[in-house]
TrEMBL record:
One of its GO terms (molecular function) is kinase activity. Coiled coil: none annotated. InterPro entries: ICL/PEPM, Isocitrate_lyase_ph_CS, Pyrv/PenolPyrv_kinase-like_dom, Pyrv_kinase-like_dom_sf. Keywords: Kinase, Pyruvate, Transferase. Gene3D superfamilies: Phosphoenolpyruvate-binding domains. This is Pyruvate/Phosphoenolpyruvate kinase-like domain-containing protein. It comes from Aspergillus taichungensis.
Length: 222
């Protein structure tokens, strides 16, 4: 008996309406404020790397439609952000076409990822006005650095900094480990001991909950 072959496409199917709907429902139930629905293929990559590929516009709009229907069904005010990464593969005009179509389906906000210039970013705001656009600012990424002040002047309504904590964390950890290697200590500042770090992570809330419930876990203090 001949055994049917399994193609790569059979395994790596694109996210369909059911997957999108389920994800949106879980976001709503978790109290998430907003989310992106994008048009990259399932084997996606960071928006600031080369070689991105996107699905066709019909597939993209199916995702947007499924998200909007789920949002309406659950009567949620969660913010549906329609994102496109089509700039590398298909150019600016196709991005605008996709975002306008998503807007017509009821997406709340648009996101064109990977602007190549400030002029292009400004043009996108104007071409899609008065629909609000989100700017994803990644310093030293594929696009220009745009400050919060510049973004506001351009007319962007939301701005996120995807690497705002990752890059500083990397630099801080790297510097600490280099000092450990050369000086034999990490060099943690005075006052930033274990208790302080635990307090930042919610230690006192744990103490309060235990004490109010009549527990004895913190009878001897912390």
């Amino acid at each position: 008996m001949e055994v049917p072959s399994i193609r790569k496409k059979d395994i790596l199917t694109e996210p369909g309406p059911l997957m999108v709907s389920k994800s949106v429902q879980q976001y709503i139930q978790a109290g998430v404020a907003g989310f992106h629905i994008e048009d990259q293929i399932q084997n996606k990559r960071c928006g600031h790397l080369a070689g991105k590929k996107v699905v066709d516009i019909d597939e993209y709009l199916t995702r947007i439609r499924a998200a909007k229907l789920t949002k309406d069904r659950l009567r949620s005010d969660i913010v549906l952000i329609a994102r496109t990464d089509a700039l590398q593969q298909h150019g600016y005009d196709e991005c605008i076409r996709r975002l306008k179509a998503a807007r017509e389906l009821g997406a709340d906000v648009g996101l064109l990822e990977g602007f190549t210039s400030k002029e292009q970013a400004q043009r996108a705001v104007e071409d899609l006005a008065p629909w609000p656009l989100l700017l994803n600012m990644v310093e030293n990424g594929a696009g220009p650095v745009i400050t919060t002040q510049e973004a506001q002047a351009m007319g962007f309504r939301i701005m996120i900094f995807s690497f705002a904590s990752l890059a500083p964390a990397y630099l801080g950890i790297r510097a600490a480990l280099q000092r450990l290697k050369t000086d034999g200590v990490v060099g943690t500042p005075d006052g930033l001991g274990p208790k302080k770090l635990f307090e930042i992570c919610g230690l006192m809330d744990s103490v309060r909950i235990d004490t109010e419930a009549g527990g004895s876990g913190f009878t001897n203090g912390v």
